[in-house]
Specification:
CATH class of the largest domain: Alpha Beta
Strand content: 25-35%
CATH architecture of the largest domain: Alpha-Beta Barrel
Strand order of the largest sheet: 2-5-8-9-10-11-12-13
Number of helices: 10
Helix content: 25-40%
Largest sheet: 8 strands, parallel, barrel
CATH topology of the largest domain: TIM Barrel
Number of domains: 2
Length: 517
């Protein structure tokens, strides 16, 4: 080989290594993380792991509320049992957009005497009002959880909302307490979480923020402490990156707001063509993973605005509706928003929950949309069969963070790149519970490459690690009524503890939950 040829080959190898080899090396390099187990002050509110039940499609009717062989409505015990396993902290009801169409007195009294209405917002079906206030509160009792009720501002009145508040909370004697007793409930329920309208910038009235701020103050003024119940008043917050809405609400009404309700959905296509839940490309996978980073940006920027008016962080930022929104299942009513749920949804859910945990100082409540049969559902139910979705399993894996102390971390998250677009590969959060157990949850958003993570545990001695993992060979793996357990958590043996060093071998496209003692 002559010298010029050798030089050309050396240069060619150097070019290949620089532009190709380093990229492959970067994807497989070991990532480093520091967890300070003795540095934490903020509690991760259990209410971050909340849920949402709207009169939409088969979430209430055909989900929580089903008919027996004689056509009588009853609670769906399978759904209740499954949700109790993940310790559901709250349920938001009756909407959603439906809330600003809903007149609560239509849903009380003998069921066969309740007036029907047309659900013009979701599918144009007849709402028979067999599931109303008493039925919802009965569901809350069965789930042993907290209710969040959203009142009607869009088509309702101050008097109507105030009467509902008194019906729920006044011990009596009073007209509303007497009416509640006539309908079978002597004691007040003590409902404190109350939303003053929903998406008032859109389906709740197409309002300007200045106009809604004035309406909010008017309606909220009449939600007064009652029979020992202090109201937790939730204002309709912004849609996504509408920062002007947040600024206006905080400036005009911030002192009257306990929680400001941000809504944001993960849509990989357009609102007209959102894309399939199960038949998607890696580009669409990558877009979904980028949106989890966008959620972090949203929470940071809205929080910064709130800090200007509320430096003590007395007002919570609530993520009242979030989740992946795909095209409906083929063959289903489009207005019912029924969709499947794959490993992609699970990794997005895990990443979002990690983001919420990191913002726990300001974010103190969130509600996945929705619970049964609608959007990124926890459960699918049909004709007596129940399927726990991959998203359900993520909520199961993350239970250790509920009411635990958020731990300080320093994390190299790596990079997942597709078609020249990059996003952090690893999403993570860590907490310590009241029994001094450390919980670490991670999502590897890269569908192709595993990651090795070396964790330096500081501030606490641990002697054991255990964990579970949710992963599959294919990005679109999902559970069906025919194969309900195709994707579920399994024992994780990829974590090794050596003194204060924890080494984690994260599979590609996976969610891992670890407990250290």
């Amino acid at each position: 080989m002559n010298v010029p040829t050798m030089i050309r080959r050396i240069l060619l190898f150097a070019f290949f290594f620089l532009f190709v080899g380093t990229s492959a090396f970067a994807q497989n390099q070991e990532l480093e993380m520091i967890v300070n187990a003795d540095q934490g002050e903020t509690t991760i509110s259990r209410h971050i792991y909340g849920h949402f039940a709207e009169h939409l499609g088969e979430d209430i009717y055909g989900g929580f509320w089903i008919q027996d062989d004689n056509g009588n409505w009853q609670y769906n015990q399978q759904v209740i049992d499954a949700l109790k396993e993940v310790n559901v902290p709250n349920v938001r009801w009756p909407g959603g957009c439906f809330a600003d169409y809903y007149h609560w007195q239509d849903g009380i009294g003998p069921r066969d005497e309740r007036p029907a209405q047309l659900n013009t917002i979701w599918g144009g079906v007849t709402e028979d009002n067999s599931f109303g206030t008493h039925e919802f509160m009965g569901l809350i009792d069965r789930l042993d959880t907290e209710p969040i009720i959203v009142g009607n501002v869009g088509s309702g009145t101050v008097e109507e909302m105030n009467d509902w508040w008194k019906y729920l909370n006044h011990a009596g004697p009073s007209p509303m307490a007497d009416l509640r007793a006539e309908n079978g409930r002597e004691e007040p329920w003590g409902v404190k979480y109350f939303g003053v309208g929903n998406e008032s910038w859109g389906c709740g009235g197409q309002m300007r923020p200045q106009y809604y701020a004035d309406l909010y103050k008017r309606f909220a003024e009449y939600l007064r402490p009652m029979s020992g119940t202090e109201p937790y008043q939730i204002a309709a917050g912004p849609s996504g990156d509408n920062y002007e809405w947040t600024r206006t609400m905080m400036e005009e009404a911030g002192w009257m707001i306990d929680g400001l309700d941000l809504h944001h959905y993960t849509v990989v296509g357009t609102w007209e063509d959102k894309g399939s839940a199960t038949d998607f490309t890696e580009a669409e996978w990558h877009t979904a993973m980028q949106d989890t980073r966008f959620m972090d940006e949203l929470l940071t920027r809205h929080s910064n605005i709130m800090d200007q008016y509320d430096p003590e962080k007395e007002t919570a930022l609530i993520v009242g509706e979030w989740g992946m929104w795909h095209d409906p299942m083929p063959g289903t009513e489009p207005g019912f928003l029924k969709q499947q749920n794959t490993l992609r949804d699970a990794v997005v859910a895990a990443s979002m929950l990690n983001v919420f945990n990191q913002h726990a100082e300001r974010v103190r409540m969130a509600n996945l949309a929705q619970t049964v049969n609608v959007l990124q559902a926890m459960l699918l139910y049909e004709d007596g069969q129940l399927v726990k979705t991959p998203t359900y399993h993520v909520f199961d894996l993350y239970q250790g963070h509920m009411d635990a102390t958020l731990l300080s971390m320093d994390v190299d998250r790596g990079t997942y790149t597709h078609d020249g677009e990059s996003t952090p590969a690893i999403s993570v959060s860590a907490s310590k519970d009241d029994q001094d157990r450390v919980h670490i949850t991670l999502a590897n958003k890269d569908p192709n490459q595993p990651r090795t993570i070396s964790v330096d545990l500081r501030g606490q001695d641990v002697s054991s690690v255990s964990g579970r993992v949710l992963t599959a060979d294919q990005m679109n793996t999902h559970n069906t009524f025919e194969q309900p357990n195709r994707l579920q958590p399994t024992s994780f043996d990829g974590a090794e503890l050596d003194g204060t060093t924890l080494t984690i071998e994260m599979p590609s496209k996976s969610v891992v939950a670890l407990e250290l003692q």
